[in-house]
Write a structure and sequence with these properties.
289 residues; alpha+beta; Gyrase A, domain 2; Elongation Factor Tu (Ef-tu), domain 3; 5-stranded antiparallel beta sheet; 16 strands; TrmE/GcvT-like
Length: 289
């Protein structure tokens, strides 16, 4: 692992949650189980009361505080929203931007996702969403990093992993459309949290009608939000992308059989990864890991 280039994920930063009530505070708010973080990290989200996406983050325990790996550009909004719920809870929220940074290593020999290892000056963890994303590290800001963020991003796109607000629209997106079930972002057996009722209803009543999937782009990469069509009918829209790879939120009926989709001046070929649970036609097989 030491020989792999370290990649600085400059669009991520760290927020600390400390105080005696830090675990119970987050446990009642977020989608994953914060009660069992011993040696593990989890991916989780904060939702509206209507079950719509607000923020997602990776959580791990660091002594007497919890560290949240969050989207840097939207960290102030996240802290503001969390403080609205603090009331009398013994909790402190600290923005560690400038002190700690988020890094990655594309380690192809990783083990079980979410596993944490202490390293000099910080933590190393196998990405809790998918081991194929390699390791994430929380280290001192300014730690030398020679790797290219674009290399990590292309791996993410091939695997179909959403990247916060690049792929999910705050106050609009639904978690289960975007892989949070299969990728371990929701604990179905924990107690109540904000937006739980509608999230559970979406799962157990089979209300998922779209899925975020990788697409191969033939032509110029369309801007995020560009409408995707099949035979002239709107079937979704494109999200984040890089070069000839992108993610697109596509209606399930448009993914039921192999197809080509139009988006701007490009043609998209859906490449659903093996981890995603899609209704499949007989003989259809996943094309990515």
């Amino acid at each position: 692992m030491a020989d792999l280039p370290l990649i600085r994920l400059s669009d991520r930063t760290v927020i600390a949650v400390s105080g005696d009530d830090r675990v119970t505070f987050l446990q009642g708010l977020v989608t994953n189980d914060v009660n069992h973080l011993n040696g593990r990290a989890v991916w989780s989200a904060l939702l509206t009361a209507q079950g719509k996406y607000l923020h997602d983050f990776i959580i791990l325990a660091d002594g007497d505080r919890l560290l949240l790996d969050v989207e840097a550009a939207r960290r102030e909004d996240l802290v503001k929203r969390l403080r609205l719920f603090r009331l009398r809870a013994k909790v402190e929220l600290t923005d560690l931007t400038g002190q700690l940074g988020i890094f990655a290593q594309l380690d192809s020999q990783t083990g079980e996702r979410g596993t944490i290892t202490a390293v000099p000056g910080g933590w190393s963890l196998i990405d809790p969403r998918h081991a194929g994303l390699g390791r994430r590290l929380i280290l001192a800001e300014g730690t030398p990093a020679s790797g290219d963020h674009a290399d990590w991003d292309r791996v993410r796109l091939r695997l179909g992993i959403p990247d916060s607000s690049r792929d999910l629209i705050p106050e609009k997106s639904i978690l289960l459309d975007n892989g949070f079930d299969e990728l371990g972002g929701v604990a179905w057996n924990k107690g109540c949290y904000v937006g739980q009722e509608l999230t559970a209803r979406t799962k157990y009543r089979g209300l998922v009608k779209k899925r975020l999937v990788p697409v191969q782009v033939d032509g110029p990469l369309p801007e995020a939000g560009t409408i995707v069509t099949r035979d002239g009918v709107d079937v979704g829209e494109i999200r984040s992308g890089r070069g000839d790879l992108a993610l697109a939120l596509i209606r399930l009926d448009a993914l039921s059989t192999p197809c080509l989709l139009a988006c701007g001046d490009a043609i998209l070929s859906p490449k659903p990864p093996s981890w995603i649970n899609l209704p499949r036609s007989e003989g259809d097989t996943p094309t990515n890991g």
